[in-house]
Design goal:
Distance between the termini: 46 Å
Structural class: alpha+beta
Order of helices and strands: EEHHHEEEHHEHHEEHEEHHEE
Number of strands: 12
Strand order of the largest sheet: 2-1-5-4-3
Bound molecules: adenosine-5'-diphosphate
Shape: elongated
Largest sheet: 5 strands, antiparallel
Strand content: 15-25%
Length: 334
Amino acid sequence: MHEIGNWIIDVETRAFDPSQRMKEFFGYYIDEVMSLENSLECVTEEYREKTKEAIEKAFLKGESYNIEYPVIGLHDKTFRWLRDQAKFYPAKEGKPAHYSGTVLDITERKEFEQRKDDFISIASHELKTPVSSLKAALQLMDRIKNKPAPEMMIRLIDQANKSMDKISGLIEELLNVSRMNEGELKLNKTTFTLAHMMQQCCNHIREDGIHKLIFSGNENLQVHADENRVDQVVVNLVNNAVKYAPGCSDIHLSVEKENSMALVKVRDCGPGIAKEKLQHLFDRYYRVDHGSHHQSGLGLGLYISSEIIKRHNGQIGVKSEVGEGTTFWFTLPL
Ligand code: ADP
């Protein structure tokens, strides 16, 4: 079957001849009659009048057009974004004036654009909070600079530092993604002991006094990998456990040998993740909406983690059930 749908319309008689693919785009059966009017009825309500007007206007003036609109298929009720490009051919050598058009399914591109737009607004919003807090701290320091009260100063410097760390972290995450998109993530491999790395990483969480990181498994297993990047993956998984499993104080880390791979697990006893969400977790910009328990984040952490593991020829995955906690795991070649 062709990827592109085609159609022809006689400007005078309005006789409309859509290809089979074109009918499928509008959710019609391939042997069913579909008029131009029928097809436009499938355009979603929000876009229907605008689309009809644009096409009528072009027809009246005998102009070619190129428009995009969303439809809901007549029988299959499937939502699709279509790009409809039509060229006008004036009457010539006995052939009547007509339009010849091509229609393309652009749903995937549109959805990606939408996610990207959402992402830009989330990213700006996420950056705005620490920037405002940093600005407030600096303004206060400026106001008291001639009569500094040491305690106040210490508090403000602390606030400024925390905001700055938040900002650097977000920028680092954004840079990581752009490097990955350009295929520029270089790995600096050495041989190191996984257990050793995992007992060193995440000190910021060990020190918070709220969470316990419990290590188990093979203490001696070594891998040949980029230690900083693998560390980054573990830190990200542990940070997520802290963030998304707030009532769970014990976070379990483990290392096992499985065939020729090292298997690392990070397990929490939090609320878990709904089955239908699991497959999207490692997608770029994907975030689960936690309703009233909003957590800040860019939806990039797991995407970056999965890219790092894939570049090492390892695998990454998740096992979770609502109410049963979540286990993220990844493997690395030994
Ligand atoms: P971010 O944390 O910036 O949203 P991530 O890519 O790290 O981005 O995570 C994507 C989504 O996966 C999060 O929005 C969150 O809903 C979900 N998630 C990640 N880790 C856990 C976990 N341990 N328990 C429950 N949900 C999680």
